[in-house]
Design brief:
single chain; 168 residues; mainly beta; 12 strands; 42% strand; globular
């Protein structure tokens, strides 16, 4: 490739990276990692069977976040930490076979979302990350030993992002 060919190739790559990072522009799978932003849906197109889309997200606030997909495709998603250690996966918790992953995240830490279509299919879907209000986080209280009087109290600790539980 000559001098001008390399420049043209570099220019084409730069334009593709810029366009791929804009909200509402389709992301083509296996084109590298793209940043995803809070409350800005990103359209994903999987053109080759088995490909996956890869996003990174760095929350500005510690809290609970939801990564979800929408569309008519059957999606699968998983969250990794910045060292690519798996944290959580989901297949069908969302509507119509879409993934919906809820995870507590720490401010300033980078998380990776990988998503793909089930069974190596091709098609399109939309990915969105949202922050959930503390009131939206719930859990079930279960009785440990029946027949004994006990109670459970809990309080959300905003510093740690955890619920402080106390059995009585």
């Amino acid at each position: 490739m000559g001098k001008y060919g390399k420049r043209l190739s570099s220019l084409a790559l730069s334009i593709a990276l810029i366009l791929g990072s804009l909200p509402g522009i389709s992301v083509f799978a296996n084109g590298g990692m793209q940043e995803i932003f809070l409350d800005i849906p990103v359209d994903v197109t999987i053109e080759n069977a088995g490909d996956e889309s890869i996003f990174f997200f760095t929350p500005e606030d510690t809290g609970v976040y939801s990564f979800s997909s929408t569309g008519e495709a059957d999606t699968y998603g998983y969250i990794l930490d910045e060292h690519e250690n798996p944290l959580k996966t989901d297949d069908d918790s969302g509507d119509m076979g879409n993934f919906d992953i809820t995870l507590h995240m720490s401010e300033g830490q980078t998380y990776i979302l990988k998503s793909q279509l089930f069974n190596g299919a091709t098609g399109s879907y939309t990915v969105t990350v949202t922050q959930l209000p503390v009131s939206a986080v719930s859990f079930n209280v279960i009785s440990v030993i029946e027949g004994y009087n006990s109670s459970l109290s809990y309080e959300y600790n905003e510093l740690t992002g955890n619920f402080d539980l106390e059995w009585q």
